[in-house]
Specification:
The protein has 398 residues and is an alpha/beta fold. The protein contains 12 helices and 15 strands. It is 38% helix and 15% strand. A 7-stranded mixed beta sheet has the order 2-8-7-6-5-3-4, sandwiched between helices. Strands 11-12-15-14 form a 4-stranded antiparallel beta sheet. Helix 2 (50-62) runs antiparallel to helix 9 (280-289) and helix 10 packs parallel to helix 12. Bound molecules: pyridoxal-5'-phosphate (PLP).
Length: 398
Amino acid sequence: MILPNMHYANLKDSYLFYNIAQKTGAYLEANPGTYLYRMGIGDVSLPLPEVVIQALHQAVDDQATKEHFHGYMPECGAPFLREAIAEHYKGRGVQLSADEIFVSSGASDELGDILDLFDPSSSALVIEPAYPAYVDANVMAGRNILHLPCGRENEFLPSPRQDRKADLFYICSPNNPTGAVFGRDQLQAWVDFANKNGSVILFDAAYEAFIQDPELPHSIFELDGAQTCAIEICSLSKTAGFTGTRLGYTVIPKALVRGGLCFHDMWVRNRTTKTNGVSYIIQKGGAAVFTPEGQRQIRENIAVYKNNAGVLMQALDSLGIWYCGGKNAPYIWMQCPKGMGSWEFFDYLLKEIQVVGTPGEGFGACGEGYFRFSTFGSPQDTREAARRLTELLGKKEF
Ligand code: PLP
């Protein structure tokens, strides 16, 4: 009898989104016709920018003619897109060659697949609260996981610790769920720590486009020494509305070498074995994002989400509630008032004001007592949710 990968038996059931669906479902059944203000969603609500739609249409037409038809694409990405992304990095002062950029179908795929490059006996450090896929992908691979819980004392931006040395470090900045963003010095400390210990940083930059403070790094490769210790995983999902269209990219510098093997070359070998690349049509749509007009149009959409963040932040400021995120990220991470637990606060908001958010406990035990609001909803819903929140939590008797 074939044996399954027994590590799957070690996966903990994720009750987070299941529980939210159960609770909201039960509420709607008991209160038919009620409208819920869904401030928990991680998906975008605005459509793809016009410039992307035009490029997608053009690419479909290309596929209809013998002269312009594309069959299999290069496994690691079309040169036109890899070059456009390399130029984009250059604009930030980061020098990469186009072939250090690998086009992908999105960050989720890469966060799991990239683990092929590391020995199963290597350990992984996850800074918590965290995007749940980091832990689960490593449990599936049977890897030893170290947790680094963080909290308000360091604004959810921990420094490396000697007692938490691992082979792989996951760093997500801007962070999901906390919205916290590492500053240059803080990130440099992680880069130096990784280089000193021979570790590799998996830098999840899915939300980099939401950074507005000019001094904050968008890419780990803006830091000295990162090219010898980091892999950066990016996505066009939130940057440009590609959640359903699927496109991302991963940067593996050629200078990243361990045990005499070059991770860049290993990934070329991996991709040419395990994928046949991303479709021509989607890559053409993605290339449009990196044109000046594409950048202008994505900024317009991001500005809508940023306005939502501003509305929620203003409400929390007026209530004197502690939170982080929002300014440079599409998530706001607030402390539940009056020492409430995160599910208790969830139930309270649902029952009293029909606002749905995400309980912090779902992102790791240290998320207990916190609550995540997403800014990806509609401006109307966000305004009304903020108004209801202010009214409810601002009541004298609360
Ligand atoms: N990384 C983080 C931190 C995320 O929050 C998400 C999606 O919500 C992803 C990666 C996955 O992005 P993609 O849509 O590119 O798979």
